[in-house]
Amino acid sequence: MVEKFDLKLLFQKSELIPAIVQHAETGEVLMLGFANFEAAELTIKTGTAWFFSRSREKLWNKGESSGNFLHVREVLADCDTDTLLYKCIPVGPTCHTGADSCFFNSVWKSENE
User: Fold this and answer.
1) Of 13, 23, 96, 110, which has the most beta carbons under 10 Å away?
2) How many CA atoms does the CB half-sphere of 48 hold within 13 Å?
3) Residue 4 pLDDT
C-alpha cells in the first residue's frame, strides 16, 4: 500500500530517525545516517541527501565537501514510520573511505549457501 502522509508524522516518536541510503538502480545498501525533520525536508526540497550529524550536532549535505553527492529519486518511510529510506543515485563513492558502500566489513557469513 502506497500512502503519502505528512512528514511531521515521522518525527512524533523521536526527533532523530535512521535514514538508510539504497542505490536506486541496484538495490545495494550504501550507508546509514540520521535525519531530523529539517534534514528530511531539505532532502525532499533539494533532491540531494541531507542528514543530521550526531557527533558534530549539525546538518550536513552528503557530498558538500567531497563532491560525492547522493541524488535522491524517492523517499520512503517504513511501516512503523520511524525510519526513512532514501533511494539514490550516487555521484562517486558513498563511503568516506572511498568505497562504493559503507558496508564492506564482513562480520559473519553462513557456510550454507
Assistant:
1) 23
2) 14
3) 65
Question: What are 7's three cell numbers?
Answer: 512528514
Q: Alpha carbon of 96 to those of 13, 68, 74: distances in Å?
A: 30, 9, 23
Q: How many CA atoms lie within 13 A of 50 on its CB side?
A: 15
The 10s digit of each residue's pLDDT in 63-96 is 999 999 999 999 999 999 999 999 999 999 999 9
Model pTM score: 0.91
Domain ranges in the chain are: 11-90
CA 28 to chain centre: 12
What is the b/e burial string over 16-50, where b = at least 16 CB atoms within 10 angstroms of the residue's CB? ebebbbbbbeeeeebbebbbbeebbebbeeeebbb
Identity of residue 82: D
